[in-house]
Specification:
By secondary structure, the protein is of the alpha+beta class. The protein is built from 7 helices and 5 strands. Helices cover 25% and strands 49% of the residues. Strand 2 and strand 3 form a beta hairpin.
Length: 267
């Protein structure tokens, strides 16, 4: 068998199209077609990637008189000398059934599927060190709903550093943000900054409630600086009614939802 024959056979065994293989290797589909027809040969770095992807030796691919496939062991014996640490290989597995041109599930170093699990994962549901999907979980996570150390979500995000429409994290940024340090239209945290904010140290454009506050309407346990209204100490029912009226008068309509949350907290 020629190099092209072997490449074509391995590709079909792994259920890849020429376009999918080209995307993984970072080349054009035409390049893969030329390799399989023996009209051209890949560069060394592409050959190395093929060996890793198909779990075979370079001898098998390149030597026409090599009759036996020299498969790389999926799990190597740990070194007797513990001074070296081996990184386990991610053994690829994927569904033969597809949806929207993607396997239903795919487990690999670089995984792409409806459900993708890998070091780098892209899919509807993605789990990995780097994850991108509608629902994503990872150290670095990007998705509509996202969870990770560094998490960016369109709708909802949870992470050490988090940003989304609704965001929860140690450092949280969003329309509705909750965190040790939170920044948002409505922010809740130890340090809260936003249009309407609640926190130990709270800075708001319109309303701030907490221990030390600054806003147009400021209510603080120890210190409050307000351009329209300020109150320090425990709130009486009279003060609560006054604050609610001021919120209705001064908070713009697009923040009515946040104003309602504050009023509910005062009830």
């Amino acid at each position: 068998m020629t190099f092209g024959d072997k490449l074509s056979k391995l590709r079909r065994e792994q259920n890849y199209t020429q376009e999918q293989l080209a995307d993984i290797l970072g080349v054009s589909r035409q390049s893969v077609s030329k390799w399989e027809s023996d009209a051209a040969y890949p560069e060394t770095d592409k050959l190395v990637k093929m060996c890793e992807l198909f779990n075979c030796s370079s001898d098998y691919l390149l030597l026409s008189d090599c009759d036996k496939i020299k498969r790389i062991a999926a799990a190597e014996k740990p070194p007797e000398d513990n001074s070296e640490i081996t990184v386990p290989r991610v053994r690829e597995r994927k569904s033969k059934k597809t949806l929207w041109g993607m396997p239903l599930w795919h487990v690999a170093k670089n995984a792409r599927g409806i459900i993708a699990v890998g070091v780098k994962a892209r899919g509807v549901v993605a789990i990995g060190v780097k994850a991108c999907g509608v629902v994503s979980v990872g150290v670095l996570s990007l998705g509509v709903i996202s969870c990770g150390t560094l998490s960016l979500g369109l709708l909802f995000s949870v992470g050490f550093v988090s940003a989304a429409l609704f965001s929860v994290g140690t450092l949280s940024v969003g329309l509705f943000a909750v965190g040790a340090i939170s920044i948002g239209a409505f922010s809740l945290g130890a340090v809260a900054v936003g249009d309407i904010s609640v926190g130990a140290l709270s800075v708001g454009r319109y309303v701030a409630i907490g221990d030390n506050t600054r806003a147009a309407i400021a209510v603080g346990g120890r210190k409050a600086t307000g351009e329209i209204f300020s109150h320090v100490g425990k709130m009486t029912e009279e003060v609560k009614v006054r604050v609610k009226l001021l919120i209705d008068e001064n908070v713009p309509s697009y923040l009515n939802w946040a104003g309602k949350i504050i009023k509910a907290m005062l009830s």
